[in-house]
């Protein structure tokens, strides 16, 4: 009887030891299946174009397929909610843009970057001002735009991203920085819709990233007028001035951040972070981003969090002036 009692009492201990062993083994073998990577903008937007080769590199390094899922909508908050609510096992991750900060400021969401697991960044970029070649006034230089807008306030139309998005913030910063009024037209999603508007001649200008603008520039549907960046774009666009060098204190640049659900295991975070750094530093991704005038750059998690903390200050000021600030 005593032997039977000892056997019964020891059974849970054996089970716990077995379960613990399985947990350690699962962490050591991560990833063991396909990973879902959620991109919070539509296919063809700058963020989508720049994310896909990074994801491909990450897949090769981790040794498992990674499925890109585009989930635009509500200022990217639909995608962020899905990542936030996912099981924290490393099999649902994604990327975030500055909307992860601006959504909370705007009152679209109750969460921001501090509610996620942050695993670093994979590129930074700055927007550009482009002009349609198909409108009644096909501007060829930024100086032409500014001169016309000065004598015709709110007549020059600018397509941009949805209210509160990175491109919208950049457009409002441009408007404020040059001290002029434009007819700002937010579009659904990110750059793909704004690009369709300006390339089709439905608006005079657009504020977009060069990744999405490049095909339309090459097709002759738009002109690149200026960068809202700290330095000029790389070749073959290095002849295009920045607003800053023209005397306007307007610089808006952003990073793309790798995010996961809260409370992810530390060893999985570390594996994704280290693999992401390798994916970013690969020559093919460095070349790909440079050709689209973005910069492949890896910031480790703590630096990425600090960067986003600092952006809150900048965005709060712009959104308050635009009358869309909800979170004080």
Q: What does this protein structure show overall?
A:
- The chain is an alpha/beta fold.
- It has two domains: 34-125 and 254-322, D-Maltodextrin-Binding Protein, domain 2; 128-227, Periplasmic binding protein-like II (D-Maltodextrin-Binding Protein, domain 2, 3-Layer(aba) Sandwich), CATH 3.40.190.10.
- Helix content is 45%, strand content 16%.
- The protein is built from eleven helices and ten strands.
- The protein has helices at 2-28, 46-62, 77-84, 99-106, 142-151, 166-178, 191-199, 210-218, 266-281, 283-291, 301-322; strands at residues 35-39, 66-70, 92-96, 117-125, 128-132, 157-160, 183-186, 205-208, 222-227, 254-260.
- The chain has a five-stranded mixed sheet, sandwiched between helices. A five-stranded mixed sheet has the order 7-6-8-5-9, sandwiched between helices.
């Amino acid at each position: 009887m005593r032997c039977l009692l000892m056997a019964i009492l020891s059974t849970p201990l054996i089970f716990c030891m077995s379960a613990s062993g399985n947990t350690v083994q699962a962490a050591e073998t991560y990833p063991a299946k396909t990973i879902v990577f959620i991109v919070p903008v539509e296919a063809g937007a700058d963020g989508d174009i720049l994310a896909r080769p990074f994801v491909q590199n990450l897949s090769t390094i981790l040794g498992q397929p990674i499925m890109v899922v585009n989930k635009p909508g509500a200022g990217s908050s639909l995608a962020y909610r899905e990542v936030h609510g996912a099981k924290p096992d490393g099999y649902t991750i994604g990327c975030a843009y500055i909307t992860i900060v601006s959504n909370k400021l705007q009152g679209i969401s109750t969460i921001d970057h501090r509610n996620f697991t942050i695993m670093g960044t994979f590129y930074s970029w700055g927007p550009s001002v482009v002009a349609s070649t198909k409108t009644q006034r096909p501007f060829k230089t930024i100086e032409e735009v500014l001169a016309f807008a000065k004598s015709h306030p709110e007549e020059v139309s600018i397509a941009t991203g949805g209210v509160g998005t990175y491109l919208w913030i950049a457009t409002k910063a441009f408007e404020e920085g040059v001290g002029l009024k434009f007819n700002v037209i937010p579009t659904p999603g990110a750059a793909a819709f704004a690009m369709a508007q300006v390339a089709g001649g439905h608006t005079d200008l657009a504020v977009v990233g060069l990744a999405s603008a490049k095909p339309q520039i090459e097709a002759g549907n738009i002109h690149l007028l200026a960068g809202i960046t700290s330095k000029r774009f790389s070749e073959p666009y290095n002849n295009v001035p920045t607003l800053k060098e023209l005397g306007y204190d307007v610089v808006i640049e952003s990073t793309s951040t790798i995010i996961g659900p809260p409370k992810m295991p530390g060893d999985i975070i570390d594996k994704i972070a280290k693999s992401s750094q390798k994916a970013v530093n690969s020559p093919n991704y460095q070349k790909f981003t440079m050709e689209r005038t973005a910069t492949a750059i890896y910031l480790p998690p703590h630096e990425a969090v600090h960067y986003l903390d600092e952006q809150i200050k900048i965005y709060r000021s712009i959104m308050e002036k635009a009358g869309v600030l909800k979170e004080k």
